Amino acid sequence: TLLGAARVVIQVPSMEGDVNLYLENASGDVLASSVRPYRRREMVVADLAAGKYFVRIDGRAASSTVYNFNI
């Protein structure tokens, strides 16, 4: 939840498998995404108003993978 307008940077700098990164609003609409192939760093930068947002990380090539993410 953001209490005021802000620029948000979300990144998955390292992972063992292929993942995609999505930023969604409270209604589940995708506002921004990063869907680079293979094991490349995923990153989303967005200027957001106050409100509730969700980050979804989708493992593509494997049923499970290890990753770190930063907001």
SSE layout and pairings?
Blueprint: E1 6-15, E2 19-25, E3 30-34, E4 42-48, E5 53-59, E6 67-70
Antiparallel strand pairs: 1-4, 1-6, 2-3, 2-5
Rg calculated over all Cα atoms: 12 Å
Largest sheet: 3 strands, antiparallel
Shape: elongated
Order of helices and strands: EEEEEE
Q: List the total number of helices.
A: 0
> Alpha-carbon distance between the termini?
12 Å
How many β-strand runs?
6
> How confident is the prediction overall: mean pLDDT?
85
Strand ordering within the main sheet: 4-1-6
What oligomeric state do these chains adopt?
single chain
In percent, how helical is the residue content? Answer: under 10%
Strand content: over 45%
Class based on secondary structure composition and strand pairing: mainly beta
Which residues form runs of ≥5 with pLDDT under 50?
none
Top keywords for this entry?
single chain, 71 residues, mainly beta, 3-stranded antiparallel β-sheet, 6 strands
Describe this structure in a few short sentences.
By secondary structure, this protein is an all-beta fold. The chain has no helices and 6 strands.
Notes on the structure:
This protein is an all-beta fold. Helix content is 0%, strand content 56%. The protein has strands at residues 6-15, 19-25, 30-34, 42-48, 53-59, 67-70. The strands form two sheets. It has a three-stranded antiparallel beta sheet with strand order 4-1-6, with no helix packed on it. A three-stranded antiparallel beta sheet has the order 3-2-5, with no helix packed on it. The model has no long low-confidence stretch (mean pLDDT 85).
